[in-house]
Amino acid sequence: MITAVTVMLALVIGAIGTVEGLPRAREAERAAVAEARAAVEARDEALT
Fold first, then answer.
1. pLDDT at 48
2. Four-CA torsion 33, 34, 35, 38, nearest 10 degrees
3. What is the tens place of the pLDDT at every residue in 4-28?
4. Cα separation of 22 and 35, whole Å?
């Protein structure tokens, strides 16, 4: 019984951590995409 409760608690804590981390991951992705676009624009501007 204690093992089952421990496993369920671990699953719930893992799910909560995933839900909390998702917005941070999306924001980091947006920032990376914006930075890559800026780098491409700077390169293109330097080449013209």
1. 84
2. 120
3. 999 999 999 999 999 999 999 999 9
4. 20
Question: How many angstroms separate the most distant Cα atoms in the chain?
Answer: 70
DSSP string, 1-48: -HHHHHHHHHHHHHHHHHHHHHHHHHHHHHHHHHHHHHHHHHHHHHH-
Joined together, the tokens standing for residue 10 give: 């671990």
Encoded tokens for 34: 């914006």
